Amino acid sequence: LNIDHRVSGVGGTPITVRHAYRTYPDLYHYRIRISPATETLTEVVEKALEDW
Fold first, then answer.
1. Which of 7, 18, 27, 40 has the smallest count of CB within 10 Å of its CB?
2. What is the pTM for the complete model shown?
3. Which sign, positive or negative, has the C-alpha torsion 48, 24, 26, 1?
């Protein structure tokens, strides 16, 4: 598993990221939740909407 910590924004490669979606040098905090895919689609959506 490789979760890239060097994010430049929302976009695809080789196309550059649009200015509105760029991330700039700053201190960012990310949380990633990894769990087995044993839930129904409804349960997955409910879990995605939970507050962390």
1. 27
2. 0.32
3. positive
User: In 3-state terms, what secondary structure has residue 47?
Assistant: helix
DSSP letter at 36 equals: -
Dihedral sign from CA coordinates of 28, 34, 37, 39: negative
DSSP 49: T
Q: Read off the tokens for 16.
A: 């550059």
**pLDDT for the residue numbered 24:** 81
Sequence letter at residue 3: I
Burial profile 2-14: b = 16 or more Cβ within 10 angstroms, e = fewer = eeeeeeeeeeeee
